[in-house]
Structure formats: structure tokens, C-alpha cells
Amino acid sequence: MKLQGCKNCETKFSYKAIQRAFFSKTEKRFKCENCGTEHKLKRDYHRIISIIVVLPMFLHWFLISLDRLLVLSITIAYVIAIILLIPNIVKYDKI
Ligand SMILES: [Zn+2]
């Protein structure tokens, strides 16, 4: 997986810019640092990420026999991994 580039000038987006845009509460969009073209998060990706993050919470029901601290550690590690991978997963479209 590689980071997406600008749809206009193909400049690679920075990892931090994508992550910041994804976690912004208001607008899921940002400008290309090179040409200023605005990009917006593709509609479905926010939902996909939410599902990926929430899914392991339901697995707790099945992992109940395991040590709680272990389950908690695995969950936290999983969520952190997803957060770090978000810029590689999500896609943006030119507005
Ligand atoms: Zn650009």
C-alpha cells in the first residue's frame, strides 16, 4: 500500500496531512500542498474504517475466557495499528 497522490498534479500527499484530514471533526478534506486542489475523503471510507475499528469489540464476547488484560492489550494494539494505517487505506477524490 502506498500513499495517494494529488488527482491533479500527482504530488504525493503527506502521511500527516491525510491523517489530520481524516480525524478532523468538521471537514474531511484538504488541499494539495503543491497545486492547491481540494480533495475530499471518499464517502464510504469513513464507514469502512469505523467498522474495522469496532469489529474486535464484538470479538470480546468470544474471547471472554482469555485474560482480560491480554484482550485489552490486543485491542489497544489493534486500534493503534489501524489508526497508523489509515493514510494507507483511505482514498481521496478531487472536489
Ligand atoms: Zn496537486
UniProtKB/TrEMBL annotation:
The chain crosses the membrane at residues 48-64, 70-90. Keywords: Membrane, Transmembrane, Transmembrane helix. It comes from the Bacteria. InterPro entries: CxxC_20_CxxC. This is Cxxc_20_cxxc protein.
